[in-house]
């Protein structure tokens, strides 16, 4: 496939860019000035002919071809640098979440790479959150759990992404060294729509609490959902209600309360 060679070239040519979507502290938000807790870094490809490509057009390809490892290395390093750039003296710390594919996590040297990225950028470990999808965790729990434990031991936080979509046994959570559950958008979509949907989301958030995990509700698109999630006890929200993923300059502006 042409695209694969293209992607390999793009990596070298600096055509990959990161956009940043804020996570908002729920309960502090009066609807006017949302409190930004941090950002999730989301990769895009500024393709010379095809324009700005969303990850769906190249991340699966990168995973199949193994290019996800060098791609992920770049994402991690760039996100750490951006996280440092977003900190402001006298303001609360800004966290940065980075998506990590399972192939990347289990590639030799990943833990060292994370530590090097922190050291080179000067980012404090507790401000880095690594997001692993639930399905990735389930695919290799034996291999993945010790790696997550190693990362967590230095203060880095671990989030389970797309939580609730993996047809999983919930018992795995007990044995997994994680800090954050990202409640999948498919649950958030239903919280103000039907009683069953609300019950499911409520149960996930309550379980997060009882396991002392932070919960992030993903894909929040309207204020009714945000209000509901706040009442249900979700810690943070993320979604178009507050902001789409935006370039770094706009992310910095969001921190300053600008639009
Ligand atoms: O950016 P968008 O909102 O379209 O994200 C779509 C999907 O692509 C998300 O599910 C996210 O997990 C994945 N994704 C985005 N950026 C990265 C990245 O840097 N690395 C990996 N592995 N996946 C990413
Ligand atoms: O890594 P993850 O699968 O969580 O990636 C988040 C994806 O969800 C990104 O593609 C992001 O652009 C998208 N997204 C974030 N907020 C919203 C939202 O409010 N609505 C919709 N439809 N998509 C969202
Ligand atoms: Mn994610
Ligand atoms: Na997700």
TrEMBL record:
Domain of life: Bacteria
Domain EAL span(s) in chain numbering: 1-259
Protein name: PAS domain S-box-containing protein/diguanylate cyclase (GGDEF) domain-containing protein
Species this protein is from: Klenkia soli
Lineage of origin: Bacteria, Bacillati, Actinomycetota, Actinomycetes, Geodermatophilales
